[in-house]
């Protein structure tokens, strides 16, 4: 060989290119470790050409590139039936009952509820092969300022890499409809990546998806008197009375006009006679 070498990549449809002069293999697009499933490596075939005077010499070699996991994904809440994206629950949400007892672990139900029962709140590191430890805490509540009424215990699963959050009420509580807890799952790492799940407290907690749809349909098709305040009811009554009065006035004016026209017609007829 005279040193006039050219490098090329014979393997197609891979996220790599090769520098034809130096032979450096470079990544040319994003490689998502989690989407590679079981095979976490690429087999590449490299070709080397020596374009010497009068003779072209070639050689090939195999190169196996292994992909390592990186800390680039947030923790993921996991439960059956959730709205999933890339096998991770998107917009994780649970519901709970309005009445809570002191020192009891809050029972929560997944949204949508396809299991017909309460579940544990579980989360894992989004980077499966790294498996950072997960710690839960209450990020905030709506209405705000109620965080001190709750505490969260983090429990490591005996099997697998899941962590469970036990949300505990520190006092007896009768929550208002629509009260919310925002639960934070944070990985113990330099990046401190985290994810948030919502717990909505409602009278319909635990309803299955079919039951919830039926209730929503019934609610949308009926309006109850108790949905209105006293002021709204009074305004409705006043408006109804005014509308009836105006209608009566209009009818009276129309009748008066008709009678007056008839009277004028009679006078005209008498004059002509």
UniProtKB/TrEMBL annotation:
<dbReference type="GO" id="GO:0007156">
    <property type="term" value="P:homophilic cell adhesion via plasma membrane adhesion molecules"/>
</dbReference>
<keyword id="KW-1133">Transmembrane helix</keyword>
<keyword id="KW-0812">Transmembrane</keyword>
<keyword id="KW-0472">Membrane</keyword>
<dbReference type="GO" id="GO:0005886">
    <property type="term" value="C:plasma membrane"/>
</dbReference>
<feature type="domain" description="Cadherin">
    <location>
        <begin position="2"/>
        <end position="77"/>
    </location>
</feature>
<keyword id="KW-0325">Glycoprotein</keyword>
<keyword id="KW-0106">Calcium</keyword>
<feature type="transmembrane region" description="Helical">
    <location>
        <begin position="233"/>
        <end position="259"/>
    </location>
</feature>
<protein>
    <recommendedName>
        <fullName>Cadherin domain-containing protein</fullName>
    </recommendedName>
</protein>
<dbReference type="InterPro" id="IPR002126">
    <property type="entry name" value="Cadherin-like_dom"/>
</dbReference>
<dbReference type="InterPro" id="IPR050174">
    <property type="entry name" value="Protocadherin/Cadherin-CA"/>
</dbReference>
<dbReference type="GO" id="GO:0005509">
    <property type="term" value="F:calcium ion binding"/>
</dbReference>
<dbReference type="InterPro" id="IPR015919">
    <property type="entry name" value="Cadherin-like_sf"/>
</dbReference>
